[in-house]
Amino acid sequence: MYQKPKGTRDILPEISYKWQYMEEMAKQEAKKCGYQEVRTPTFESTDLFLRSVGESSDIVNKEMYTFKDKGDRSLTLRPEGTAGVVRAFVENGLVNDTMPQKMFYIVNNFRYENPQAGRFREHTQFGCESFGINTPFGELETITLAKTILDKVGVKNLSLHINSIGCQKCKPIFNRALSDFAEQNKTSFCEDCNRRMTQNPMRMLDCKNENCQQILKNAPKLKDYLCDECKEHFMKVLELLRQNGIEYVVDTSLVRGLDYYTKTVFEFISDNIDGKGKSLTVCAGGRYDGLVEEIGGKPTCCVGFGMGLDRLILLLSDVEKPQTDVYVLNVGGVSADKTFEIAKTIREQGYTAQSDLLDRSFKAQFKYAEKIDARYVLIVGDEELKTGVFNLKNQQSNTEEKLKLDEIIELLKRGE
Ligand code: ATP
Ligand code: MG
């Protein structure tokens, strides 16, 4: 028997309706803010990710699915959504259009990670990117949108963690200071941090290793290195959040795993998801003012987020399971030929209807109607066909009514 590759999942009908709800709801909320959908290729040239996500990031170092195609090009399955969207923005000349521009997408990302709860090798993100907004209102709208979606999902114990990691001017100065500090403690850091301290020291702050975190307590602090512009911008972001009633925690060790971020970075975390104190990041994002220029466009400020849908599905509170409105049941003979037609008429009115396709007995059809949880069973016999009056059984209340087809449709329209 074939098995799916490690770290991937099948989303079966018993759960896919939750995905549909989740995706539709997120899209609707984004559209209300003026976002439009963008779709980009599942694979891009490897170079794009080296350049944008960054050669020192975990994604590029350890997690990419990179391969050569038959034309000897190095391609990579998309590990995240932003790079492709920004490439499309530049390549298609949108960079020269009126700003701001806002785009959302639902993508599957591929990362060679150690599979564990809420971590897969193919995962899905809902992402939003807005271009051309240099003011803190960019962060405000982005964060508000993310929070609206997460609240609608019903994520419990949700907190917003936020930080500023500085701009192209002040970030390098901090990195140098941290690197100098790290050099003095070189032997005590984990292998990853030893690599990070030369490639991208800031990433050390994000290290999951307890020992590294212990040493870093005495390290130079990011906030002491922010330039005036970055400081002012960050203060204004926080002020706007307060004004709009969005609670936050300033988390000075939050740096994010992708190299392209500047100034504001944030994560929404759901705490204590398992009742044992485990927390999970469900949405992450920030500002990336240098990326458009980095990949060949003119300087454009951007802010966005990515939301891990695989994790959100687990936290989604009750979503109504789609039901068949009417199962049209036949008693054999002529009525069997008619049920399909009746089901079709009901569908034309916008309701879901099914009829027997397997030449099954009355009893077997009834069982099936129960199994699929049909709301109503409409019984079609020779007599009913003659009079045009059918027996409609409400499966939930177990009551029956005699009605004509248009009366049945009226009843459905009334939402009964
Ligand atoms: P982490 O620190 O958890 O590895 P990251 O920095 O790699 O996260 P991003 O690339 O910013 O994460 O992704 C945004 C969101 O996508 C995450 O907050 C998470 O909800 C989700 N996500 C990331 N990687 C995975 C994965 N392998 N499986 C499922 N969801 C993921
Ligand atoms: Mg990761």
Could you characterize what this model shows?
This protein is α+β, with helices and mostly antiparallel strands and 416 residues long. Helix content is 38%, strand content 22%. It has helices spanning 13-32, 46-52, 58-63, 82-91, 137-153, 171-184, 191-199, 210-216, 228-243, 291-294, 309-315, 334-348, 362-371, 382-387, 405-413, and strands at 36-37, 43-45, 66-68, 74-77, 101-110, 122-131, 158-164, 249-250, 262-270, 280-287, 302-308, 326-330, 353-355, 376-380, 389-394, 399-404. The strands form three sheets. The chain has an eight-stranded mixed beta sheet. Strands 13-12-14-15-16 form a five-stranded mixed beta sheet, with helices on both faces. A hairpin with a 5-residue loop joins strand 3 (66-68) and strand 4 (74-77). Helix 1 (13-32) packs antiparallel against helix 5. The longest helix is centred in the first third of the chain and has 20 residues, at 13-32. The protein is elongated, with a radius of gyration of 28 Å. The model has no long low-confidence stretch (mean pLDDT 94). The structure holds adenosine-5'-triphosphate and magnesium ion (MG). Residues 58, 257 line the site of magnesium ion (MG). The site of magnesium ion has 2 residues, from loops.
The whole-number mean of residue pLDDT values reads 94
Residue share in helix: 25-40%
List unreliable stretches of 5+ residues. Answer: none
Report the bound ligands by name, code or SMILES.
adenosine-5'-triphosphate, magnesium ion
Strand order of the largest sheet: 1-5-6-11-10-9-7-8
